[in-house]
Amino acid sequence: MADANARHWSLALASNSFHKAVGIEFVELHEDGATMRLEVRDEHLNGAGVVHGGVTFTLADSALGYGIYRTLGKACTTAEMKINYLRPATGGVLVARSRIVKKGRRLVVARAEVDCDGLQVAQVLSTFAVLG
Predict the structure, then answer these.
(1) 37 to each of 79, 101, 118, 127, how far by Cα in Å?
(2) What is the pairing mode between strands 93-103 and 24-30?
(3) 71 DSSP β-pair partners
(4) The pTM is what?
(5) pLDDT tens digit string along 65-109?
(6) Do residues 101 and 109 touch, judged by C-beta distance below 8 A?
(7) Would you state the pLDDT for residue 132?
(8) Contacts of 80 by beta carbon, 8 Å cutoff, 6+ apart
(9) Which regions of 1-132 does DSSP assign to beta strands (E)?
């Protein structure tokens, strides 16, 4: 992606107060999706000392939503999302890479993989509803 386009999306994400509070950062846009990251902090851990599943889910949802929005140029919202946790993430950096599988007029199906320090920790399959 062009530097100006990447800067635009990076600034748009940085201005999102929810993403800022959670610690989600924009990495890159792709032709078929987006990549985002999150540096794991103590508040992301559950009582067992591993990254809370909701944190992983939120990061994947954000990468999916931004990737779909960027590709379609239309707002969208999560209609359904399934996540398979493959191994616990205990710290480091989570990275979510989304890919669009099928674009329809009203629904978009997409996948995401979430890695923690190079090891895959989750796979996600989602359906997003196109708004407007």
Answers:
(1) 23, 21, 12, 21
(2) unpaired
(3) none
(4) 0.89
(5) 999 999 899 999 999 999 999 999 999 999 999 999 999 999 999
(6) yes
(7) 77
(8) 126, 127
(9) 24-30, 33-39, 76-85, 93-103, 107-116, 119-130
Percent of residues, the chain, with pLDDT higher than 90:
80
Q: What span, in angstroms and rounded, lies between the C-alpha atoms of 126 and 64?
A: 8
The DSSP output letter for 131 is: P
CA–CA separation, 96 and 47 (whole Å): 23
For 63, residues 6+ apart whose C-beta sits below 8 A from its C-beta are: 33, 34, 35, 36, 96, 97, 98, 112
> Token digits for 127?
């359906």
- 């890479």: which residue's tokens? 97
